[in-house]
Design brief:
mainly alpha; about 85% helix
């Protein structure tokens, strides 16, 4: 019995090295497949990478090539450049963040709803809301109405305000049926009222109230920016709730 089992034991010992030598080959095949999948992923992402990184590179290149403005003025943090505290303009920054969030939500929802076959009117309603909000955000961020247009282009601040009012009015007229039928109409009304009061204060429409002592002059900035912040919050709330409602309805139609 011992003589018969001994050769079997020897045979298994002979085959073990062959099995072990195949394991590195299998690992090599796995690595090749993994590299192939990674290459395919990068190839598929190439158009997106070009669309994202090429404009970013051009912005940095333009900043480097121009000689009119110091580079650190364009690339540095304003509070550090002016040795100002971190909370400088914090309310205005909060408003800009809400502008940006509203624009992103509206534009994303309008694109997201497209394959769900919503009504073209609702899709355009959210798309143009995103564009309009982006314009207002850029004005608030770069101070177009207060400095850029009056100082560098010679366009009066009142004309800029009038242009914004016309843009908002055209938007409201085009989509008034959707707005009036919305459950969240009150937020649009509050936003428009607050924006109007902020503009009137900015244009010194209530200067007589300061002269007769009803409000202090230092409270003018508080009221102007306070009404603007309430308007932005109302604007953000309306479109956030509306976009959520549209997505839910679109998903329901898609599933049914």
């Amino acid at each position: 019995m011992n003589k018969k089992t001994a050769p079997v034991r020897d045979l298994t010992e002979k085959f073990q090295p062959d099995i072990q030598t195949n394991e590195p080959l299998i690992d090599t095949f796995r690595q090749v497949r993994a590299r192939g999948r990674l290459r395919d992923r990068l190839t598929g992402l190439l158009p997106i990478m070009m669309a994202v990184y090429l404009p970013t590179f051009l912005i940095v290149l333009l900043v480097r090539q121009q000689n009119r403005v110091p580079i650190h003025h364009l690339m540095g943090d304003p509070t550090k450049l002016t040795n100002s505290p971190f909370y400088l303009g914090i309310v205005t920054k909060l408003g800009i963040l809400l502008w940006c969030a509203t624009a992103a939500i509206c534009l994303f929802t309008s694109l997201y709803l497209k394959p769900l076959n919503p009504s073209l009117k609702h899709q355009q309603f959210l798309f143009f809301a995103g564009i309009l909000t982006t314009v207002l955000m850029l004005d608030d961020f770069f101070q177009f109405h207060e400095e850029v247009f009056p100082t560098y282009l010679g366009i009066s601040e009142k004309i800029v305000y009038l242009a914004y009012v016309i843009m908002v009015a055209l938007y409201l007229v085009k989509f008034y049926t959707i707005i009036l039928s919305s459950r969240y109409l009150v937020f649009v009304g509050l936003a428009l009222v607050c924006f109007a009061l902020s503009i009137l204060l900015d244009m010194r429409a209530i200067v007589d109230l300061v002269d007769i002592g009803l409000i202090y002059d230092r409270d003018r900035a508080l009221l102007e920016n306070g009404f603007q912040l309430f308007g932005i919050v109302s604007w953000f709330t309306y479109f956030s709730l509306t976009c959520k409602e549209q997505i839910q309805q679109g998903m329901h139609r898609f599933q049914s």
